Each structure stands twice: as structure tokens, then as C-alpha cells.
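[Q] Does anyone have a clean C-alpha cell version of this?
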Amino acid sequence: MANNIERSNRVANPRVTPLEAEPGYYPVLDGLRAFSVLFVIFEHVNALPSPLRHFHGYLGVDIFFVLSGFLITGLLLREERLTGKVDLAGFYIRRAFRILPLYFLVLFTYVIMLQPASKIAKWTQMKAALPFFLTFNNDIPLILMPDRVGTIFGLSWTLGIEEKFYFFWPLICFIALGTLRKRFFVGWILYGLSATLALFIFPMGRAYAGLIVGAILAIAFSSPAALESLRRLASRIPAGAILALVVIGFWLVDVSQRSVFAFSWIIGLTVTSLLLRKSWLSRFLSLNWVVWFGKRSYAMYLIQGFAIESLLLVFHPGSAAGEVGLAIAAFILASLGAALLHRFVEEPARGFGKRMVTLRNAHKLQRERVEASMRVFETQAE
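[A] Here you go.
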């Protein structure tokens, strides 16, 4: 693979189009997101019958990490390929309007709901964690004071990880490094560091490792030679084998938490197969109704606590079947709330962010034209 990355810096293979040069939206990955948020909700409800509790739903967040690393890196690589550069300021503006409005709306709602005196214990926990939540250091409370912070919004620790990645990785990848080969090898170095920290010092390093798995895969996808190799690999692995590998990945993590790193690579292989090989699995994950849930997975993830807590007020499962029913009901309720948030918060905010970037670029272009005209005028005046 490394040789393919190096060779692609010199010679483009005309028979293979880098994936980031193709249409930038992949419905099948939204389908994968839908199941990821389903896994997480089942984990938080603890809603699997005893034999199935070995399949840990929290691995849904590890699927999210791989997808985020892949999509963000691929987005920036596509922009670089098509325009010759990466507008990091524009990227940060779009990310901010994609994430912040909904995040702060949900956080504010949690704060308001925890005010009643009957919820004083949870409010005390929220107050301790709130400075970290407001600064997107959501992961810090779980490290510094796990015994004091068990707030209902603690699930947002993943956003603290992702926001740091979104800020620093583009700087490393597109400012400090100029070639695919350098990015590929630095990605492996950072992966090794993250995995080592996760194994011995900093357990949340597993999240950064998952993000970097996705980033490394995106870099490979942007290389024509490497992509050709990945196409050949995907063509040899049937969809049933991919699904079996994912199940094995869940089992491996149940045997040893350290297998989460292998699980992330299994998800990387799954993404490769879904994008490069048409199969019954990719067609199923691309179904409109499956994709519908995936497009709303960010909001569903944030408000799942509301859904679960609301249902527990009226529904007290006393059996494994009841817990499964609670999880499914929470998934449906969260999806309904997410549909409203997607329509009235996410989409307007994202559209506003895109318009801001377009307007900023138009002003920048106009300024550059004026400066160029002035230089021509000054030259002629001499």
C-alpha cells in the first residue's frame, strides 16, 4: 500500500478515478450511521437479552469515529484536488454551523430540564461538567472526575474528541504536509501513538486511533494506484464475509477491550467494501428509509437521553423483551425529535454556514481582482 501511495504521487492511473473526485455524498455511509446510533441506544438502555450482551453497543461510537475520519479527510482531499488548495477557514466555518447550533440548543435544554429540585443530584453533576461542555472538552470530566460526573449529557464526550480532531488534523495534514505519501506515513505514526497511549495511559486514545484509521483510508482512496488495489481487495470479499467480520469484531472486543483497534480496521474494511463493491449489503444500507435515519443520527445521538428518560417515566421494563422494546421505542422517539431538529435547526444552520463561506469567498475574489488591477495600474504608471 505504501508503495502504491508513493507511486501515485508520480503517475496517475487513468483507469481509476480517485474516489474524492467523484460525487461527494455516499448514502450507504448514512445507512451505516443509522445502525451505529441504534447500537449506542441499545447500549444505554442495556437492552439486549443475556446471550447478546456480549455484543457491546458502545462500539457504535467507534464506527462513528472511523466514518468521521474518513469523510472529513476525504472532503478536504477532494477540495484540494479540484481547486488546488484547501480553504481551512471555510472548512472551520462550515463545521461550526454544522455542529454548534444543535449542540448548544440540546445542552441548554438539558440544563433547563435539570433545574427542578427533584433532580438536584444530576444538576450537581451537570454544574461540575458544564465548563467543559461549553468549551468542547466533554471528554475531560470523564478523565478527571469520573466518580463525580455521570450526567445525562456525558455521552457527548465523543464530540470533545471529534472537535479536537477536526481542528488539528487538517492543520497537520494540509498545512504541514504537502504530499499523499507524507500524510500517509504521518497518519500511521499518529495512529501508533494514539494506540500506544490508549493501551497504557489514556484509554480515550482509542477514539483518536479510530479517527485516524478513517483518515488513512481516505488518503489511500485518493491515490489512484492504492484505490485500484483496494478495489481488487473488495471484489474478493463477499458481503456476507464482511458482515461476519463485523460480528467477529464485536466478539473480539467482548473477549478483550484491546481488540477495539482490530474492530476499527474491520469497520475500515467494511467502508471499503460498501463503497467499492455493489452488493446486497450496500443496497440495503442505501435504502431511502435506512438513509433517513442516518441523516438524522447526529441529532438522535444528542437527544437519545431525552427519549430514554421520557419513556422510563411511563414504561418500566421488567424483562429482557421489555428492555428491547424500550430501546426500539427510544430509537423511534429520538428519530421523531431528530426529524424536527434536522428540519428546523440543522439544515438552516448548515445552509447559513455555506452561504457565509460563499459570501466570504466572493468578497475575497473581488478584493484579489481589485488588488490585481491596482498592480497593473501601478506597473503602467511607472
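[Q] Thanks! Anything notable?
[A] Residues 10-16 have pLDDT under 50 and may be disordered.
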